[in-house]
Design goal:
By secondary structure, this protein is α/β, with parallel strands linked by helices. Helix content is 41%, strand content 26%. Helix 2 runs antiparallel to helix 3.
């Protein structure tokens, strides 16, 4: 058996040769870019890339075919990115982002007209207060009404919950994102501490009905199970649940809502911190009609629809890997009226002005059937 130090010397020698060949290949890619500039040919040649990837897999034993295909694909990605940089060919999305950065305001507004779903005391309202110092709030019955208010210009901004660390994504909001025209300009991560609220004089042992939003009910499932013979009623939000209990004349109802709702609606606190997971956070997105990128933006969101073929999503993910960009969230949602086709929602971590971010924006549309940039922003914690 060979000693490991001898084996590693061979590996290092081979890796050095691979690095030299990579440098040589990238130099040849510069010649390709010059040719394409002179002949006005597009950088992306899908047919040739497919042929090269297939040929790479055929040059190795079957058990190594997938690795050869992967390596060849990454090489093609790197070559194409280099050609984009040399030719300074920018996608429409990239040009829009550059223009937004050039005209960025000096700071995020302190005062604004903001739309959110619910009533006073809802977690959305708390998130609004976290993002704005002096907001003028309008409340709406449904999430779609918030999108409509922003699109119509009735509100400058809208705030919507998008995911919870315990209960997962707010799927209805993601579905609405596919149907509305908007941009994300800020996000907020809010710690959620649920409280059981009752009318004055009501005890926990009296409670038989609990009102709350579906997400809050899911987050407090163990606590609810500890209340004998208790039934749950789903409401549009937690603050509305508190309001319903306050208006009720029954002595067996309670609401799961924020602590602040006790003072707002004249209720008493039975128990606090009743969520099953004490590390319970909800992320909220602040949306606007127009694209504005405020200083410090280091997160971006977009939606893609991939081609309906094997490896389509991998081709998208390979770009993140090649550019060293971290994916914070990847969410898939079925596309209405399109059987077995999905929209993929990405949150990524990368400064909006970084060169690698523009390389990503310049190349994504080449491997997507549809690509929609949603905005770059900062997350408030």
């Amino acid at each position: 058996m060979r000693d490991i130090s001898e084996i590693r010397k061979d590996i290092d020698r081979i890796d050095n040769e691979i690095t030299k060949l990579l440098l040589e290949r990238m130099q040849v890619s510069a010649d390709v870019a010059a040719y394409k500039r002179a002949t006005h040919k597009p950088i992306y040649d899908g047919a040739r890339e497919r042929q090269n990837i297939a040929a790479a897999s055929e040059r190795v034993p079957p058990e190594l075919a997938s690795y050869a295909s992967m390596i060849q694909s990454v090489l093609m990605e790197a070559s194409r990115a280099a050609q984009h940089s040399i030719l300074e060919q920018h996608s429409a999305e990239s040009e829009i982002i550059r223009a937004a950065l050039d005209t960025a305001p000096a700071y995020f507004p302190l005062k604004a007209d903001v739309a959110c779903q619910g009533v006073e005391g809802a977690y959305q309202q708390i998130a609004v207060d976290r993002m704005f110092r002096r907001p003028t709030l309008t409340y709406h019955d449904a999430f779609e009404d918030v999108f409509d208010a922003v699109e119509s210009g009735a509100a400058e901004f809208g705030v919507l919950p998008i995911e919870n660390s315990s209960a997962g994504s707010v799927n209805h909001v993601y579905d609405l994102m596919m149907r509305h025209d908007f941009h994300i300009v800020r996000s907020c991560r809010l710690k959620i501490d649920h409280t059981l609220l009752v009318r004055p004089g009501v005890k926990k042992e009296d409670v038989r009905i609990v009102y709350s939003h579906q997400q809050a009910i899911s987050q407090c499932a163990d606590y609810i199970a500890s209340i004998p013979n208790c039934r749950v009623h789903v409401c549009e939000n937690t603050a509305k649940a508190a309001e319903m209990v306050a208006k009720s004349e029954r002595g067996d109802v309670a609401a799961i809502a924020a602590r602040s709702c006790a003072r707002l609606y004249g209720l008493e606190i039975v128990d606090q911190g009743i969520q099953d997971n004490q590390n319970n956070y909800t992320r909220f997105a602040c949306i606007a009609k127009d694209l504005v990128i405020y200083p410090g933006a280091d997160r971006s969101s977009f939606m893609v629809v991939t081609n309906h073929e094997p490896g389509a999503l991998y081709k998208v993910l390979a770009r993140f890997y090649a550019l060293g960009i971290n994916i914070l969230k990847l969410e898939s949602r079925p596309i209405p009226h399109r059987d077995f086709e999905f929209m993929f929602y990405f949150d990524i971590e990368c400064p909006a002005a970084a060169p690698e971010f523009f390389r990503l924006m310049d190349s994504l549309s080449e491997v997507c059937e549809e690509f929609r940039y949603l905005g770059s922003y900062t997350e408030v914690i």
